[in-house]
Amino acid sequence: MQPFDPEITMNDLKSPADVVDFEALAEWTSDSCTSQLHVANPAYDYVPPHLISLFITDSGGHAPSYVYRLLAEYYHADDNAL
């Protein structure tokens, strides 16, 4: 496994009760339907890097290839090392 694996770290799930009102659902469906219902409510949305074409910031939209320059303007070079 990689030190940062988005498939593992970004798949934190929250309670399905945040998006589905099970009490209201039980009123208009059968018990067999609600017992087989599986709701995934991810805490984060992971977007693979190859699908990102624009970063929106306070100063406007920037191409992904320009982000390194923005970091250099806002942070000291010592702060860029992880």
Please give a structural write-up:
It is elongated, with a radius of gyration of 21 Å. It has 4 helices and 2 strands. Strand 1 (55-57) and strand 2 form a beta hairpin. It has 2 domains: 1-45, no CATH class; 47-82, no CATH class. The chain has a two-stranded antiparallel ribbon with strand order 1-2. It has helices at 6-9, 22-28, 31-35, 67-74; strands at residues 55-57, 60-62. With 82 residues, the protein is α+β, with helices and mostly antiparallel strands.
How would you summarize this macromolecular structure in one to three sentences?
This protein is α+β, with helices and mostly antiparallel strands. The protein has helices at residues 6-9, 22-28, 31-35, 67-74; strands at residues 55-57, 60-62. The protein has 2 domains: 1-45, no CATH class; 47-82, no CATH class.
Number of domains: 2
Beta strands, count: 2
- Helix- and strand-based class? alpha+beta
Assess the beta-strand content as a share of residues: 5-15%
Q: In one word, what is the shape?
A: elongated
Physical arrangement of strands within the biggest beta sheet: 1-2
Mean pLDDT across the residues is 75
Please, how many helices?
4
- Rg, alpha carbons: 21 Å
From the N-terminal CA to the C-terminal CA, the straight-line distance is 19 Å
What is the H/E order?
HHHEEH
Main sheet attributes: strand count, strand direction, barrel closure: 2 strands, antiparallel
Helicity range of the residues?
A: 25-40%
The stretches of 5 or more residues where confidence is low (pLDDT under 50) are none
